[in-house]
Structures are given as C-alpha cells and as structure tokens.
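Slide 14.
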Amino acid sequence: MLTTETRDSDFPALKGRTYLNTAAESVPPVCVGDAIRRYWEDKLCGMSGRDSHFAHVESCREIAAKLVGLDTGEVSFCSCSSEAYNLLASALDLKAEDEVVVSDLDFPAGATPWLRAARPPQLRLWKSDPQGSLQTDDLLPLLSDRTRLVQVSLVSFFNGFRVDWDALVTAVRSHAPRAILSVDITQALGRIPIHCPGADILISSTHKWTLGIHGGCVIGVPKDRAQELTTHAGGWLHLSNAFDDDRFRTAITRSGAASFSVGMPNFVSLYALNASLRYLDAIGIATIAAHADPLVTRVAEGLVTLGLQPMTPHRPEHAAGIVAFRHPRSEQIYQRLEREKIEVMHHAGRIRIAVHGYNTAEQITHLLDALEVALREVANG
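Slide 15: predicted structure.
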C-alpha cells in the first residue's frame, strides 16, 4: 500500500518500529500534524478564526459521510463514543419495561449507559460462543416486541470478531420490529469498507483506525430515523433557536445526527480527522483492506502454527484488523515482544495484535519469529 519512501515520509514516527497496536491508538500521518498546526494558526485569529473552524467541520462532515455511506446531513460529531451513547440513551428515553440487547464482545461505552439510566431497562446479554463468535441463533431468543435497542460492534475490540451484518439485520427486523439497531464502527472505520445497510445509528471514535486524535466521535443517523433518534440534551449548537427571543420558553432541537452536537465542537480533533480521513480516502479503504487483510491471515495462521489459538475463528473473506490470543505466561511473552520493539496490547492474559495499512509483511515475520522465541523461553521455564 505504501512504498518504503512514502511510509517513511508520511509516518516518520514508525521508522524502526513494529507497531501493531492501532486498535488502541493509531500513529497519525504527517498531514494530521499539519492540520493541528493549521488549527493553531486559525485559533490565533481570535473570533475571525471561527470561519475556518466551522469550514473544517463541514469538510470533515463531508468526508466522514462518504466513508460511512450516508448523506452529509446525516452525519455529525460529538466528543467521544461514551458521550454518543449517553446521548443516544437520552434520545430513546427507555422505560423499565423496555429491553436492550448488548453483546459480551462490546466495548463498555456501548453497554453501560443502559445500566446507569435513571430508569434502567431490562438488559439482555448476547453471549459469544466458546470460540469467541456471536451466533445469530443465540440472539433470536433475546428478541421480542419489547426490544427497543440492539447494540453491537461491527468489529469487536476484544478479540476481533466481525459480526455477520446481513444476518444480524434480518434477525432484528423480523423478531424485534420496534428495535433501534445501533452499531459501533470504531474498530472498523478507516480499516475496512463500511457497509451497514439497515443500521439506525453508527458511532465511531476518532483516534484508532481513522488515524485521528482524541476528542472526537462520528455519529451517523439516516434521515428516516432522525425524529426517533433526536436527543433531549440541553446545549446550544444543536438548537435551531438557541439565540432567538423565545429561547427561555422553548428549546427547539435539530433532529437526528445534528442533535448529538450539543456544544462547541472540538475543532482541533475535527481538523485532524478531516485530514486523516482524506488521507485514507486518497489511498482507498478497499486498497488498505486488500493490503492488510492478508497480513492478518498470516498472523492468525502463524499463531496456529505456533500452537496458539486465536480468540475467534479467522475467516479471510470476513477479515478485520484484530487478532488476539490468550496464554498463561502472557506477561513474559509480552516482555519479549517489547524487547524486540514490537508494540501490541497486553491485558489480563490477552495479547491483541492489530494490523493496519502502514504495517508490512516484514513486520509480521518479525512478530511471528519473536513469538516463537518467546514461547520457547517460557516452555523452558
């Protein structure tokens, strides 16, 4: 995807590193730093700098909408996925008799707002099978006319499982006709093409595969769900009458995605995201996937060869960026990888490997060779 020269020029921070931890934090390209400096220059203009600030927001909205498959007016921004899900909770205003389905492969931001609600709905847990996969047959008994929300991650942060989207939509629409289908695309946007027809709301943070920085979140709400998914939050930016004469008598909220942008945008994050998404789009998300997916397959097959079991079955035709495994001596394995300047994520016995477009075949060889040495060391005590 990148030549040695363009990789070194676009990602100088990656030189001499085998960075396989994008599922936690990306290393942005140089153009993102340039965008942040542009924000600073505009900020120094004071109030007149807002013209450029808001122009960058609209430019970012345009490219974000393209990459999530929605119209520009169906996309907006807030500060992080946790804020997005809490705003979603305010839009739904669930009752104690309502039911919400979440999976045990979801990130806490998408699962916990329903536990913290003033009137918590009934939470139904879609459990992964022993192989680390979510089976549609296990979801069906959880769905009913009382189901108001089904929340799922397109790609799981935990083990890299990628949901069978078409089967999910069919199941929800046929067995829970009143349900909102919410999808967290944080571990997918920027790494694989986003194709989620039938989703009612899409949510993604901005500092992982999108190559942006902290402080942003992409919200997508199709027009036909805009009225139903309009938040009840206070604020000003999302109001159509924020400064009108009637502002102390009524607050008129813009509908759908626009209602999630309740206050001043985090402009610097959106400058960065605009630059990073346009960088990715210039390369092509399909091109990134075509480069990185075979590397993910090499990782998964290499782990099996070494006697390690990926935490979810690898399907090359349904790949994403993450492969994870467990080992009782994971701390020693992780330390060996660190000594080899290989950066992965380690937590509670789990090692997670994330492969993006800036990774190379040589780095995967380096990883697998280091794992072989590490396993031999731990076996010898």
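Speaker note: The first strand starts at residue 18 and ends at 19.
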